[in-house]
Every structure is written in structure tokens, then in C-alpha cells.
Design goal:
Blueprint: E1 24-28, E2 33-35, E3 40-45, E4 55-61, E5 64-70, E6 74-77, E7 81-86, E8 96-101, E9 105-108, E10 119-125, E11 131-138, E12 141-146, E13 152-154, E14 163-171, E15 177-179, E16 183-185, E17 195-199, E18 209-214, E19 227-232, E20 236-237, E21 246-249, E22 258-265, E23 272-274, E24 278-280, E25 291-295, E26 307-312, E27 320-326, E28 332-338, E29 342-347, E30 356-363, E31 368-370, E32 374-376
Parallel strand pairs: 2-8
Antiparallel strand pairs: 1-3, 3-6, 4-5, 4-7, 7-8, 9-10, 10-13, 11-12, 11-14, 14-15, 14-16, 17-18, 18-21, 19-20, 19-22, 22-23, 22-24, 25-26, 26-29, 27-28, 27-30, 30-31, 30-32
């Protein structure tokens, strides 16, 4: 019913090294409350156990701390207490509390239940007596009545199923009613809400951006498959569902600024969790280094031939508005707006009237920049 493993699954975090694996304890039978005189076998799951290496077990009970070493990774237990295990090189496992009860009726539950698991509760009576009716209560409210003493199954448990549980049993051929002790059961989070990380946090236009959807699975569920997807403003889906928690936007522009978030989910049963939205503001690079040139180079064309005025910028991102002007007459010759650092304006047939001083300007919304003046004179035939 319980799956155990010893590897930590962590959505990749740049520059972060993997932590030393912590052992995990499983129980057989899986219950943390059993009757006095019964036996529970603890298994210490570790990533690697060398030949001849011992497992160290820690027992805490009534203020006493005891140690025991076993050549294998199992330990048979008949006394109440809190148990942890570790190898020579590993940190201690999380503790497991076992109760060997002398009550007539006990409510049994697994040590750990994660959201999405089926929560199994079992009402047990001591000895060979038989229950004819069992009632299960949650936070003082009866939630199930069974005339055959069956287990209570809560499929796809959620965090809302945490609470105080108790069972009430009616014995066969007796009119006496037994009540179990109240058990506090906490459904564990399968994985925390993801966090979206954007690198770089303030990207510039035309650059690439990496999105990382970061979350973490517990040791006991390290084999769970997680799927990821990314969104922007009003649910615009940026990617299909994928096993990768990373997404690269190869080229980002100012209009891509907005609110971004990601979703992590399991397949079956489906558990989906969304990150908080993260505002991404794409920075524009102002235009600079505006230069006006001619084609052919040097402007050596005869009257009646075409002349091309080439306006370019050394830096500048996004849509750039280019404009061409005559300095001596104040005439505006033309304008083009495009996502390019270079634009051309053609004069189809030049003549003596075109002789003069020319310049161009460029503007991408972060301030207008102007080229130096270029003096053009038609070549004599």
C-alpha cells in the first residue's frame, strides 16, 4: 500500500548540490497502533548499504534514548516508542512512533498518508471477538457505519481529510459498546506549491529567458511523475505538459512583458498546484550609434541612377522607427518602422536637385538618436 524509496526529487535549481539522502522507515504491518504482544517489522530504506555495514536504530521512550545495531536493514519491534534509523554516512531518518496498546478496541492507520492516496482506517478488537457494527467519526461527526466491521476507505485523500478520527465498535452477542482512542491523522502534502524562477529576472529585448518551475517531492514518493506547464497573462499557455520543469523562451520582446506562472501536476490521481504569478518586465535597449551611409558606397552615382540611403544603429532593440531628412532644406524624405537595426530608403533617380546634406534618425521609444550629416554630390558623367 505504501511505496518507499530513498532518492530526493528536486526540480533543478542552478548551483545547488544534491543533499545527502535520508533513510526512510516502512512498517509491516503498516499500522502505527497495534495490540500489546504483537510484532511490527521496521525496514530502513537507504540508498546504499555496503556489505557488512550495520544499521543504527534509535529508540526514544519515556525519556530514555537507546541504540541498537542490526546487520540487515530490518528490526522487529514489540515495545512502544519513537524509532529512527541511519547508516554510518547518512543523517537519521524521520521518526516513526509505534504504540502497543492494551485497549480493547484500537483504530489503526498508516504512518504516512499523502494527498492523492487512499486513506485506510481499520477498527480492531482484541482477541477473537467479532465486531458486528462499526462507526467511524471524524472531528466528532459520524461519517461511516458498517454492519460487517469493514475498513473505512477514503479515496484520493486531500489535506481537508486531516483531523481527529475515532471508531466505535459493537461486539457480537454483547450489548457493550467499545470506543477507540482518538487518533489525529494529518494528510501530508505530496509536493508544495511550485515557485516560478525567471532567469535573468529583468531580461532585455531580443535575449533568451529561462523559466523554471521549482517544487519538491518527499522521499517516500520520489518515484511520482510530475508534469509541468507554463502560462502568461490571462491563461495564455506557453508550453504543452512536459516532464521537464524548465522552459526556454529563445527570444523575448517588450510586448512579452506581463504576469507569468507555472503549474505542477501528477497524472493519476490528478493533483494540480499553481505558482504565484511573477511579473516580468522586458527591458528595451535605447538606440545609439546611428549611422547614415549610401549605396553604392561613397554615393558615386551618375545623374538618373538610383541612390540608396542606409540608416543603421549600433545598439537598440524592438521596433525601430527610421526617418530620413535633408538638413539644408528641412525636407522629410521618408519613414520606416521595423524590427531591425538597419533600414534603406531609395531615391529612384538622382539629379542636381538632390545635391545637399542628409541625415537620419532612429527611435525605439526610449529616445530619438540622430546620425551625423552626409554631404552628397552627383558624380559627373
Amino acid at each position: 500500500m505504501l511505496l518507499w524509496a530513498s532518492l530526493l526529487v528536486l526540480a533543478p535549481v542552478s548551483g545547488q548540490s544534491a543533499a545527502a539522502p535520508k533513510p526512510v522507515i516502512s512498517l509491516h504491518p503498516p499500522w502505527t497502533v497495534v495490540f500489546r504482544g504483537e510484532t511490527v517489522t521496521l525496514t530502513c530504506h537507504v540508498s546504499h548499504l555496503r556489505a557488512g555495514e550495520y544499521i543504527t536504530w534509535h529508540l526514544s521512550y519515556l525519556g530514555k534514548d537507546l541504540l541498537q545495531k542490526t546487520p540487515g536493514n530490518t528490526l522487529k519491534v514489540r515495545d512502544s516508542g519513537r524509532f529512527r534509523c541511519q547508516t554510518k554516512d547518512s543523517p537519521p531518518s524521520d521518526s516513526v512512533r509505534l504504540i502497543f496498546s492494551s485497549d480493547w478496541l484500537i483504530l489503526q492507520a498508516p504512518h504516512t498518508v499523502f494527498e492523492g492516496d487512499t486513506l485506510v482506517l481499520r477498527c480492531q478488537v482484541k482477541g477473537r471477538q467479532k465486531l458486528i457494527t462499526v462507526k467511524y467519526s471524524w472531528n466528532g461527526k459520524v461519517i461511516s457505519v458498517s454492519n460487517e466491521g469493514q475498513d473505512l476507505l477514503i479515496p484520493q485523500a486531500s489535506l481537508n481529510n486531516s483531523g481527529h478520527y475515532q471508531c466505535i465498535g459493537f461486539l457480537e452477542r454483547e450489548h457493550y459498546v467499545y470506543k477507540s482512542s482518538t487518533r489525529i491523522i494529518k494528510i501530508q502534502e505530496l509536493f508544495p506549491y511550485p515557485k516560478l524562477r525567471v532567469t535573468p529576472s529583468q531580461p532585455t529585448e531580443g535575449s533568451s529567458v529561462n523559466l523554471s518551475c521549482q517544487t519538491q517531492l518527499p522521499l517516500e514518493r520520489s518515484d511520482t511523475l510530475l508534469y509541468f506547464t507554463f502560462f502568461r497573462d490571462r491563461g495564455v499557455m506557453l508550453s504543452d505538459w512536459s516532464r521537464s520543469p524548465e522552459l526556454q523562451i529563445t527570444t523575448i520582446w517588450r510586448e512579452d512583458s506581463g504576469s507569468y506562472w507555472c503549474t505542477a501536476a501528477t497524472a493519476i490521481p490528478s493533483i494540480q498546484k499553481h505558482s504565484l504569478p511573477l511579473q516580468v518586465h522586458v527591458q528595451g535597449v535605447p538606440v545609439s550609434g546611428v549611422l547614415l551611409e549610401t549605396q553604392p558606397q561613397g554615393g558615386q552615382v551618375l545623374a538618373g541612377e538610383p541612390l540608396v540611403l542606409v540608416c543603421s544603429v549600433a545598439e537598440g532593440t524592438g521596433d525601430i522607427a527610421f526617418s530620413w531628412h535633408r538638413e539644408d532644406t528641412g525636407e522629410h524624405l521618408g519613414r520606416k518602422q521595423q524590427r531591425s537595426q538597419r533600414a534603406e530608403l531609395e531615391i529612384p533617380a538622382v539629379g542636381g536637385s538632390h545635391m545637399g546634406r542628409y541625415y537620419c534618425t532612429a527611435d525605439n521609444g526610449h529616445g530619438l538618436a540622430r546620425s551625423g550629416a552626409l554631404n552628397w554630390t552627383p558624380q559627373e558623367s
